[in-house]
Amino acid sequence: EAQVTQNPRYLITVTGKKLTVTCSQNMNHEYMSWYRQDPGLGLRQIYYSMNVEVTDKGDVPEGYKVSRKEKRNFPLILESPSPNQTSLYFCASSLFWTTTYEQYFGPGTRLTVT
Amino acid sequence: AQSVTQLDSHVSVSEGTPVLLRCNYSSSYSPSLFWYVQHPNKGLQLLLKYTSAATLVKGINGFEAEFKKSETSFHLTKPSAHMSDAAEYFCVVSDRDTGRRALTFGSGTRLQVQP
């Protein structure tokens, strides 16, 4: 089944403890992206990647890192999480970066930082 | 710069009545426009998309939207609401000529369907 998977789905952690949220897609998509969803704000892009080893900042990149060493994986790293990073995170992918291709979303990761 | 305004944060309809979710957009270039739906505790699913072909776009589950450039609108409609349509709906714009290819999301409209 074609899909985007994220792990973990739920995570509660403490301020400053490094964490990684994994994202994997099995559709051979070139483009991948991370978003965070906060009430009343819709989804905002954190980072994106047009292909392997090509990543760039989105609208809200502060406090996050990403890497794209393989086409299928695009992990999101929070090196020193803070409470303002408590949010619902979505990974997405599409075949190519051009806008005619729809983005497929993972099921989301709900992160709580205390 | 691109932006999206969903004019209603919450819409309530009765089952079997029409649905109208309103969306206005702003874009410097020729935009692509999307509607996504998010059911409780689920990810986002694409309902339909406009990418410069026909201005009336048909999507899944009986939804459709009309691109009106003169009004910068992309309203979502459905002739008859079902209980299963209760969810949050996001209007999304993407500028086709920007390399970043970011999606800009509206703040969402929560659709409630009364029996």
Account of the 3D structure:
The complex is a heterodimer of chains A (114) and B (115). Chain A is mostly beta strands and 114 residues long. Helices cover 0% and strands 50% of the residues of chain A. Chain A contains no helices and 11 strands. Chain A has strands spanning 4-7, 10-13, 19-25, 31-38, 42-51, 54-57, 65-66, 76-78, 87-94, 104-105, 109-113. The relative contact order of chain A is 0.33. Chain B is mainly beta and 115 residues long. Chain B has no helices and 12 strands. The mean pLDDT of chain B is 89. Classes of the chains: A mainly beta (114), B mainly beta (115). Chains A and B meet through strand 4, strand 5 and strand 10 of A and strand 5, strand 6 and strand 10 of B.
Layout of strands and helices, then pairs:
The complex is a heterodimer of chains A (114) and B (115).
Chain A: E1 4-7, E2 10-13, E3 19-25, E4 31-38, E5 42-51, E6 54-57, E7 65-66, E8 76-78, E9 87-94, E10 104-105, E11 109-113
Parallel strand pairs in A: 2-11
Antiparallel strand pairs in A: 1-3, 3-8, 4-5, 4-9, 5-6, 7-8, 9-10, 9-11
Chain B: E1 3-6, E2 10-14, E3 19-21, E4 23-26, E5 31-38, E6 44-50, E7 56-58, E8 64-68, E9 73-78, E10 87-95, E11 104-105, E12 109-114
Parallel strand pairs in B: 2-12
Antiparallel strand pairs in B: 1-4, 3-9, 5-6, 5-10, 7-8, 8-9, 10-11, 10-12
